[in-house]
Amino acid sequence: GPEYGPYLVLLEKIREELKQQVENKALRNQIEEALLDVPALPLLAEDQHDEAERLLRACVARMTDEAKGQA
């Protein structure tokens, strides 16, 4: 549906930020894969763009915090 356009734009935006913030390529790849499991598409279909972005960013924050705790 039409929600895929904004979804891809949002994922690309977050992905570009990840490249700047996370040097570890393996961790970056893990985060990118986890982002695909975040239920952002249904939110975007309901025109809840801010909530979709919040969920995606929460996933990034959780995973980077967990990685810092393991380091």
Describe the protein's architecture and organization:
The chain is mostly helical. 80% of the residues lie in helices and 0% in strands. The protein has 4 helices and no strands. It has helices spanning 4-21, 25-35, 40-45, 49-70. The model has no long low-confidence stretch (mean pLDDT 95).
Would you summarize the structure shown here?
The chain is mainly α and 71 residues long.
Features:
single chain, about 70 residues, mainly alpha, 4 helices, about 0% strand, elongated
Blueprint of the fold:
Layout: H1 4-21, H2 25-35, H3 40-45, H4 49-70
Helix pairs in contact: 1-2, 1-4, 2-4
Order of helices and strands: HHHH
Number of helices: 4
What form results from the Cα inertia axes? elongated
Secondary-structure-based class equals mainly alpha
Whole-number average pLDDT? 95
